[in-house]
Amino acid sequence: MSVEEKLIQRLESAVTRLEALSATGFRSGGSVGTGDDTVVLDPSIIAFDDLRSEFLGKVTTVAEKIGGKVLDITKIVEKAFSAQRELLIKIKETKKPDNSGLVEFLKPLNDAINQATTMTEGRPDFFNHLKSAADSLSALAWIAYTGKDCGLSMPIAHVEESWQMAEFYNNKILVEFKNKDANHVEWAKALKELYLPGLRDYVKSHYPLGPVWSATGKAAVSAPSKAPSPSAPAPPAPPPASLFSSESPQASSSRPKQGMAAVFDEINSGKPVTSGLRKVTDDMKAKNRADRTGVVNAGEKEARMSSPCISKTGPAKLELQMGRKWVVENQVGEKNLVIDDCDAKQSVYVYGCKNSVLQIKGKVNNITIDKCTKMGVVFAGVVAACEVVNCNGVEVQCQGSAPTISVDNTTGCQLYLSKDSLGGSITTAKSSEINVMVPGAGPDDDWGEHALPQQYAHVYKDGHFVTTPVSHSGA
Fold this sequence. Notes:
Blueprint: H1 3-22, H2 36-39, H3 43-66, H4 68-91, H5 99-105, H6 107-119, H7 127-136, H8 155-176, H9 182-206, H10 260-269, H11 271-274, H12 298-305, H13 308-311, E1 317-321, E2 325-329, E3 337-339, E4 347-351, E5 354-360, E6 364-370, E7 373-379, E8 382-389, E9 392-398, E10 404-408, E11 411-416, E12 425-429, E13 432-438, E14 448-451, E15 456-461, E16 464-469
Parallel strand pairs: 2-4, 3-5, 4-6, 5-7, 6-8, 7-9, 8-10, 9-11, 10-12, 11-13
Antiparallel strand pairs: 1-2, 13-14, 15-16
């Protein structure tokens, strides 16, 4: 069904509804009908329908031409936008809930987002499409904005920031299919337009300060008191158990203790990264102390682990989830982490680790290292890719093959490649201080060090820009 046909169908449905409602007459205050019929005539709801028809309809139309998993993820995007529409209607009839009530109220939207996130597990075909769509749905969390103290950015800014998360993968689609298939390029462009300008302009026009709850409506149902549900697996990005959850032991961001506000306050403050770094003075260094060796005793280790800033990051984990995903989280000062019982169908997700070393002895599907500091990872090989995102000062060694290694938003990354991995590709974005070590020609030869450029010169020549890396002294 084309966009025009869908628009005509929606208009016909609206006309039919108006004719039916006209028989009941207007109530006091200018509203008509009851329940949903009252608010669906609200300008903000009509505008949201227009948003879905114009922008989301274009994404769906192109996805139907592509089919397969691209169509599947697009249908989940449709489901998420439909869930948000229903929530916008209910908000006009509901009193503002507390944090636990908000979690339960927004559950239908969160379920759709988690469903999209799950589709990215294991780096399937059209991974960039799936990841771009799944990450983009975090923009719908603008509806959870309850004020300046809730920890979220203002709704307009939140939509823009959320799209930036998805644009990294969206751009990969544009590059990959630029000269191969115009439908994929059109889908990627349509997805971006759905949020920028689509959703952003909608929020700007109708909810710049967040949703307006009813002062006289019914109360929202609070979330039942029960153990928090596990998060949905989502490599390579942190798997959000719930965008709005006030409590979740497996959430990939800082673990909240006092509701949704604590979640986003922790994320935006930067404390989980900076406050975890220990200050080392000269007299504390082992080389300056005759009474010390390189071994840290249990007492020292326990004292360091008891730091208040570390306790906020959540429990340390090294476990296999659902038989398919190894999760290594919040490990601090652990130099002997090992995963040896793994296979090529499993993925490894390393998050929030500091001053630790992980060895992966078997070949796995993909590896993601996220928000780690002073972390070392040695792996036997990957089927798909090894990805380093949001890290600071990490070392990664590949002992086998790695078709793709990507480094995104990272400062200080040392890559050690084996001869089998030299044929792979290395992609960097928004990163600095990236050095690649390659083996020498012979077994006794020294490793060669290569600094990847982080600055580029762009010169306009013969009708287009020519881009070349800027040479660095010593390179």
